[in-house]
Each structure stands twice: as structure tokens, then as C-alpha cells.
Specification:
Oligomer: single chain
Structural class: mainly alpha
Largest sheet: none
Radius of gyration: 21 Å
Helix content: over 70%
Number of strands: 0
């Protein structure tokens, strides 16, 4: 009876840690992008440039982070990463210049990935068994989504509290003060999570038992890189992650195309976040009943259909609820893929002690969208995007889920 609570608390802590570390570099910009653009006096293209610097430092960190995860204790690696990331949030609260913001994102690329990412995935794989990897990773991503959505909803309520009531002009000072409160609150939460992780995550007994036996072997790493399943796995993550990066435009689409207010657009983005836990946990449950890789096919198919629907502008002249529903399906397909793309690690038959190395290898390719996707979105939309720019964006994007579908098959 004593083991069960500790296992539950360990997964809950992994879930919270897994999303808390990305609240500042990603969730903040995804949910509050309309406000951030106006306070920082920054365009989508400039946001893309900052996030591309994150991607460059992150991709290098993925590779080396995999080796680190196979040699050191996850508890320490996770907590150090989260606390370092929180220090970046303190700096952002002062609303730095555009150039300083770019440097901050480059720093976050290291702080959120090098010691963190492979350790998180390895800890989750160890938490489950070979027969419930779908549920393990579905719980991880679904729980992360629920935590992120709850923080975003709390942030949106700050927006509502500080903004003047309808009919009163919202000044730049209103927006500045509100955003500082949001960033400050999220930073405090991230710092607190870092301390909780160190206290709650148990010391890795597996690491202690294997520390003398396991020595990293470059030959084994290169053999992994050459496996066809590993190559296809990298491509699947690459395409799925591009779709996830695209969720950052849902809120701005609502503002620019549907003419939603800043508050309405923010709440729409928060609503989309709440679809993530539903999709990830549901698909994770069914993945264990079937084969995880089989469920990738319908998920990518949904993305192809919805992106082409938006790209060709089928519902532009129709009632808003039709394109609203299209976004719901698109988000469901995207978040389903997030719950699946690490659950298929078990199908590669990689030994547990090489999990960190494998995650590092597939992440180098799979998460390169961090380098270019935000930049691509920013330049596609320009400074004052209209329906034409959004149609062009979704049309071009539809090529990616087609590639992902072929890799899955």
C-alpha cells in the first residue's frame, strides 16, 4: 500500500514539472501573444526570431542532454533546470528590449532542455511498464496540458481583473501592468515547482545499480541513429511538433479574422489548451489496447483535412462556429500526436539504459521546428495579417502532416 501513493505522487510531480518548465518560453507566448505583441512592441516575425534562437540552442542541448540523462540522477537534473528557467522569468518581468528578449530565449533553449528533457522522458518510461507506455505518456502529456491550461486560465482572469470594464479605453499602461503581473505569477509558480521536484521525486535506484555497469558507447549511439524505426520516429515527431507550434496562431486568428477582442482571443486560446488533456489521455488509453503507432495514422489524417479546410478558406464566408469546430478537430489531432509520439519508443526495442540516448537522437531532428517554425509563421503572417495570410499559412502547413502520415505508415 505504501508504494502506490509514492508512484502516484511521482507521476503528478513529473506532469507538473514537464509543463512548468515550458510555461515561460512557450505557454506564455501561445496564450497571451496578442497582449505581448502590444506591450513589447514586437511583431510575429520578431517573436519568431527570438524563438528560432531558442530552437538553435535547444537542438544542441537535446543531443548532449540524452547522454547526461543516462549518467546522472533525474531528480537533480529536473530541479536545476526548472530553477534556472525561473530566473529567466524574473528578467522578462522587466519587459526587456527585443534584442535582450532574443538572448533570453537562447538561454531558455539550454535551461529547459540540456538537463531536463531526456531525463523527463526516461523517468516516464521507467514509471510505466512495456504494456502501458501509451497510458504513461498519455498521462504525462494530458496532465501537462491540464496544468498549462489551468495556469493560462488563471492568467486570463488576471487580464480580465486588471483591464477596465467595457466602454473604457484600455491604455498601454493597463496592458503593461497586467502582463507584468502575469509573467511574475508564472515565474513564482515555476520556481516553486523546481523546489517541489527536488523534494518529491525519489532518488533513482536504477541509476545507482547501473552506474558502474553503464558506460556510454558512441558505437551503440550511431547504431541507433541508423535504425529505420528511429529515423521514421524522428520524422513523426518533427511533423507532429510543427503542428503543435501552429497552435500558437489560434488566438491571433480569432483576433485578426473573427475580430475577437484581446480578452476573447485569449480565452479562446485557453479553451484550446483544455482539449490537450482530453485528447492525450484518451488516445493513450486506446494506444495500449491497440498499437500506439497505428493511432498516428488517423491523427495525421485529421490534421491534413483540417489544415486544407482552413487553407482553402472553405468556411470563411460561413458562420464562425464552422471554422471554430475546425480548430477544435485540428487541436484534437495535434494533441493526440503529442500523447503518442514517445509512447512508440517501446516499439523500437531500445534497452532501458539507452533511453536517454535515444531521446536525445530523435529529439535533435524531431524538435528542430523550434528553430524555424515560429520564424516561418511570423514571416508568413507579416505585421498585419488578414485571412489571405492565414490561408497561405495553413495551405503550406498541410504538407507536413502528409509527410508524417507516410512516416507512420
Amino acid at each position: 500500500m505504501k508504494k502506490k501513493p509514492s508512484k502516484i505522487s511521482a507521476m503528478v510531480t513529473l506532469i507538473i514539472a514537464g509543463e512548468a518548465i515550458f510555461l515561460l518560453p512557450f505557454i506564455l507566448i501561445r496564450v497571451f501573444k496578442p497582449v505581448i505583441r502590444e506591450v513589447f512592441l514586437i511583431s510575429d516575425a520578431q517573436i519568431g526570431e527570438a524563438q528560432s534562437l531558442y530552437g538553435i540552442t535547444a537542438v544542441m542541448s537535446y543531443f548532449f542532454g540524452g547522454f547526461i540523462a543516462d549518467k546522472w540522477e533525474p531528480r537533480k537534473l529536473l530541479s536545476i533546470s526548472i530553477i534556472l528557467t525561473a530566473f529567466g522569468g524574473v528578467f522578462m518581468t522587466f519587459i526587456p528590449s527585443i534584442n535582450s528578449l532574443k538572448i533570453l530565449y537562447a538561454f531558455w533553449g539550454v535551461s529547459t532542455i540540456l538537463l531536463f528533457w531526456a531525463s523527463l522522458i526516461k523517468a516516464t518510461r521507467l514509471w510505466g511498464t512495456k504494456n502501458n507506455q501509451g497510458l504513461s505518456f498519455g498521462l504525462l502529456d494530458g496532465g501537462r496540458g491540464l496544468f498549462a491550461a489551468s495556469i493560462a486560465l488563471f492568467g486570463a482572469s488576471i487580464l480580465t481583473f486588471f483591464f477596465p470594464k467595457k466602454g473604457v479605453e484600455i491604455t498601454f499602461e493597463n496592458k503593461l501592468e497586467t502582463l507584468q503581473y502575469i509573467i511574475g505569477t508564472i515565474t513564482f509558480v515555476v520556481l516553486l515547482v523546481g523546489l517541489i521536484v527536488y523534494k518529491v521525486i525519489p532518488k533513482s535506484k536504477l541509476k545507482e545499480n547501473n552506474s558502474k555497469e553503464f558506460q556510454f558507447n558512441f558505437k551503440e549511439a550511431f547504431l541507433l541513429m541508423k535504425q529505420r524505426k528511429v529515423i521514421y520516429h524522428s520524422i513523426i515527431i518533427f511533423c507532429a511538433y510543427c503542428a503543435y507550434k501552429l497552435t500558437g496562431v489560434y488566438g491571433t486568428y480569432a483576433k485578426d479574422v473573427w475580430n475577437y477582442s484581446l480578452e476573447q482571443a485569449t480565452y479562446f486560446a485557453v479553451f484550446i489548451q483544455y482539449l490537450r488533456p482530453i485528447a492525450a489521455i484518451l488516445v493513450g488509453y486506446f494506444a495500449d489496447k491497440l498499437i500506439p503507432s497505428k493511432l498516428l495514422i488517423p491523427a495525421f489524417s485529421i490534421l491534413i483535412f483540417t489544415s486544407l479546410t482552413l487553407g482553402l478558406g472553405f468556411f470563411y464566408d460561413e458562420p464562425i462556429y464552422l471554422s471554430f469546430v475546425t480548430f477544435i478537430f485540428m487541436a484534437f489531432g495535434t494533441y493526440s500526436l503529442r500523447g503518442l509520439y514517445f509512447a512508440i519508443i517501446e516499439e523500437t526495442k531500445t534497452p532501458l539504459q539507452l533511453t536517454g540516448t535515444l531521446v536525445g537522437i530523435i529529439s535533435v531532428v524531431g524538435f528542430t521546428p523550434d528553430i524555424f517554425m515560429s520564424l516561418f509563421i511570423g514571416y508568413m503572417l507579416g505585421e498585419n495579417p488578414t485571412i489571405t495570410e492565414y490561408k497561405n499559412l495553413f495551405s503550406l502547413f498541410s504538407l507536413l502532416p502528409i509527410i508524417g502520415l507516410l512516416a507512420s505508415i
